[in-house]
Amino acid sequence: MMMRRRVFGLIFVAIMAVVLVAGMPGCGKPVKIDITPPYLRDLAEQLNFYIGTAVGYGSQTFPNNSQYMRTLKREFNAVVAEYTMKWGTIRPDRETFNYRPGDELLDFAENNKMMVRGHTLSWHQSVPAWVENGNFPRDEAISLLQDHINKVVGRWKGRIREWDVVNEVIRDDLTGQTGENPRRGNSVWERSIGADWVEIAFRAAAEADPDALLFYNDYGIERKSRKQDAVYALIQDLQGKGVKIDGVGFQGHFVCGNVPSEEELKASLDRFAGLGLRVQFTEVDIRIKKPVTPEKLTLQAKEYERIIKVALEHPACDAVLFWGVDDGHSWINSWDKNYGAPLLFDSWYDRKPAYYAVRDYLLAEIERRQGGEEGEENEKKEAQDG
Ligand code: G3I
């Protein structure tokens, strides 16, 4: 008995030692992190803008991780479910609609005055096996898609401002050859319904909530490319058929050092805004090829500032959402281990140079606009004074 107590005692001491050492300065884990105001959300609100983030679900993130939740509430005024509003969560089988995680996020968002983006009503990924392997005939697949959209959009009607109705329809490997089909072939909707499934999805969403803003969302369209051309043609085709489409989401999954230039980003937003659409950066992260160094973090900060600048300056853009709160919970960590540190907060929820770059730009923009207003006031006064 004595021996067992001694062993347990030694284990306890060892654990405490690790905890203490890990918390000491110089071990990378900051003892005290900076949480001084102003916060991103307060600055964004002064600019009538949304600065948001994708929100995970479970013990490590929303709603159970207290540090995650503190950072989320403090810094963001918009949220999007990283996974819990996809088919994979909502529809484990044909009869089930599992709304609970989505309900929890909406309640949280409303209690914290956050705008909610819905993501995503249709996609070639996160499709449950009973759909993916269902081999449904066209008519049945159409009614399955329409029923899903009708019920899910209807469930949260008036509470979700905007939906990614269709996500990532266009292939990444376009060659530009004449007659090339730009659509992904690995989509159960494309396979079972055919190309008009996109139009069907948008029409179903518009019927379910006529006031919701309906978006097409994709990556790899943030600079001129064959993929961007194909998305542009897809949207023109939808508009030509009288389909309600309100916006395009530029996901913005970038590699540090390869973020499009300010001119490229602006030209891409201009191109789609020219179709009368809203434009948003919807899933921004800038992954860094390891090893992560102070120099790379500085470059990342400059690139985040570039994105915020382009977004704030564009009259058709009112939102930038990051694809995650902190580096510790980014999809990148399981997607490509050669890259890391993609977000504004590190794994200990401490602010990175990227955070300060975004915050400083928001502050400068507020001052610019106030200066502009004062300038206008002065001009008006001078004109009155003659
Ligand atoms: O919740 C289940 C859990 O119960 C289960 O034990 C576990 C192991 O199977 O899986 C968990 O679900 C995972 C989910 O993330 C939540 O963590 C899914 O397997 C996994 O596929 C899913 O990955 C998400 C991926 O989309 C596919 O839906 C990523 O988190 C998410 O960041 C990623 O986000 C996409 C956007 O929706 C679209 N644009 C690209 C972006 C990055 O791929």
Low-confidence stretches are 17-27
Count of individual domains: 1
Overall geometry comes to globular
Q: What's the helix-strand series?
A: HHEHEHHEHHEHHEHEEHEHEHEH
Which CATH class applies here?
Alpha Beta
Oligomer description: single chain
Binned strand content: 5-15%
Main β-sheet description: 8 strands, parallel, barrel
- Mean model confidence by pLDDT: 93
Radius of gyration: 23 Å
CATH architecture tag:
Alpha-Beta Barrel
**Helical stretch tally:** 14
The secondary-structure class comes to: alpha/beta
* N- to C-terminal distance: 97 Å
Helix amount, in percent?
40-55%
Tell me the CATH topology.
TIM Barrel
What's the CATH H-level superfamily name? Glycosidases
Number of strands: 10
Strand order of the largest sheet: 1-2-3-4-5-6-8-9
Enumerate the distinct ligands. ligand G3I
What does this entry look like structurally?
The protein is an alpha/beta fold. Helices cover 46% and strands 14% of the residues. It has a single domain (40-378), classed as Alpha-Beta Barrel (TIM Barrel), CATH 3.20.20.80. It has helices spanning 2-23, 40-46, 66-75, 87-90, 100-111, 129-132, 138-155, 188-192, 197-208, 226-240, 262-273, 294-313, 332-335, 353-385; strands spanning 50-55, 78-81, 115-119, 162-167, 213-218, 247-250, 253-255, 278-289, 317-322, 339-340. Strands 1-2-3-4-5-6-8-9 form an eight-stranded parallel beta barrel, surrounded by five helices. Helix 10 links the parallel strand 5 and strand 6 (247-250). The longest helix is centred in the last third of the chain and has 33 residues, at 353-385. Residues 17-27 have low confidence and may be disordered. The structure holds ligand G3I. Ligand G3I binds at residues 82-83, 86, 125-126, 167, 251, 283, 331.
